[in-house]
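Why does residue order matter? Because the sequence determines the fold. Keep that principle in mind as you read this record.
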Amino acid sequence: MIVRGAFTTLAIIVFVPLSVFAQVSQDVELVVNPGSIETTLGRTERIEVRATNTSSEKVGPFAVHVDITDPASESSVDPEDWTPTLTQEVEGLEPGESNTLIWNVQPISNGAYSLYAVALVAGSVEVAVSNAVTVRVESARTLNPEGILPVAVALPLVVGALLALNLRRSAALRRNRNARLTK
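Structure:
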């Protein structure tokens, strides 16, 4: 009897709160734009998340957080590698009011990923979840990544020219010194 009572208490303490956290917020709607992204490695993409208060009362403050995942689980994704700012704060929204938050993300590996946003309103156990955006990242193979080709060609030429001038000057100085010594 005591064991059964302990299990019932455990079930109430553990299982009820877990079901409460599974609720989706009806007060804040999140929409991520653009709806899909096709990009290449190294390119920075602008992501906009529009948070809208869909309730009849003021909502907030709340935090909006972006996350990136690999739905195929082919690679590990660390969102901090894609953007230095994962979470942004919203002070509050009046009924019907919207706020657009901006993230700049730069993929670090090729593949297909999903990007989404979540919001947790202070004092609430409900979570607002946005649409999932598909991010397709292709490898970028270029002969001139980030404009390095002119530097790679010009630098050895400049160093060679300076060396040649220095050698000519040294030879001229030696000739002048030898000419003075023979007089």
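Residues 1-23 have pLDDT under 50 and may be disordered.
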